[in-house]
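Friendly challenge for the regulars: who can give me the structure tokens for this chain first? No prize, just bragging rights.
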Amino acid sequence: MSRVGQKPVELPSGVDVVIQDTLVKAKGKLGELSVKIPPMVTIKREGNVITFTPVDKSKQARMNWGTARALVGNAVKGVSEGYKRKLQLQGVGYRAELKGKTLSAKLGHSHDDNFDLPNGISAKVDKQVDIEITGVDKRAVGQFEAEIYLTKPPEPYKAKGVHKENGFVERKEGKKK
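First reply, four minutes later:
Bragging rights claimed.
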């Protein structure tokens, strides 16, 4: 039994969900998302509650059950509240700025690293070192954060690089004389 799949998705006020066969469209105050659901899961809407059930007891149907519920839950949360990720630059000369739809960052390379903002994603730079990425699609926000982070992850000796908000860097001791 899927513990995630058993939980119903409750729709907050202001969110409208339309179910068409294997396509679920969620529309809210922040935008609109559509999610394709595997055909091994049936979806029912009763008032402000969406429930999911597997078509049969096969392993694949049970695996898709929890996945379908999570995808629809993420879409509903995205169009109502949105997703936010924060990054911080640490190091001498490390800074970022927003130039239109491009995030330009100096990360210790011989050149500036430029990141084009995907559709539906917005970024805000504060004090040249704090980057906040927001959007309605959880996957797209996380992917954009990962692209920036993997350009210069923090190194273990001086912790210079791009830090995630709740990330942990295991520090190492330097050379001893």
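The mean pLDDT is 93. Residues 83-164 form a domain with the Outer Surface Protein A; domain 3 fold (CATH 3.90.930.12). Your move, everyone else.
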